[in-house]
Amino acid sequence: MTYDELATTGSGLSLFGVALGQTWLVALAFALTLGGALLVRSTFRRGKDAHEA
Fold first, then answer.
1. CB 12 within 8 A of CB 22
2. CA-CA distance, 12 to 15, in Å (whole number)?
3. Quick check: helix, strand or coil at residue 38?
4. What is the number of helices (H) and of strands (E) in the chain?
């Protein structure tokens, strides 16, 4: 018996009848995080520099 690789858990998600595997979940989480960061960066304190109150 060899233990050369990690066991796959089979975790996934089903949204609106579309099954998403682990790779798609990681890509979706990354896209949501990046989108949120860009949204905050572009809209928070619009028109003000970092040193302005």
1. yes
2. 10
3. helix
4. 1, 2
